[in-house]
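Human: I hope this is not a bother. Would you mind checking the protein record under this note? Thank you for your patience.
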Amino acid sequence: MESNAVLLESKSSPINLLNEMHQLRLLGHLCDVTVSVEYQGVRAEFVAHKAVLAATSKFFKEVFLNEKGMDGPRTNVFLNEVQVADFASFLEFVYTAKVEVEEDRVQRMLEIAEKLKCLDLSETCFQLKKQMLESVLLELQNFSESQNSEEESSTQPSILLESNAAAVAEADQADCPLDPPDSPADRPSNRVSPEVPATKPKEKT
């Protein structure tokens, strides 16, 4: 009777593998490649593992697969126009899947990711730039809304004052007419006064 197959899967193994490779690189153990970077006269060398670089960067994969032979215990790779700080951040990312950089360096990290053909870093930079852009747009929207609300609040008092003034004027006119009669006798009437004859008598010839 055949038994059913079961899956043995470790969730922590990929993280542990990266952490161990990172520690080996920091200690310089089992490193088989030296990467020299230079930018505007500033130069530095970094030791790493071919397998890690080849697995995370198509650029390094092509370099290592096309090399004719070893020129010593380690392979040397030279990179021009790459800043030292940027490549150090690149190495930290490919060995740990995360790196902390300043906001103004995100674009540079995207450029080095494209130069070294590191898809994971490119996608990470794109997502971060998208979040930063959305954050800026949200701040602009909130600022615009606050400006509009301030303008509305500044115009409302004058409108209220005008409406109040109009109401007071109407009330004054209702209570105090322009030409009030002095007494009931002075008010106009349709009756003819007895002192004033209705018709003028004809003169005798």
User: Anything to note?
Assistant: The first helix runs from residue 13 to 27. The chain has a mean pLDDT of 81. DSSP finds six helices and three strands in the chain. The longest strand covers residues 33-39.
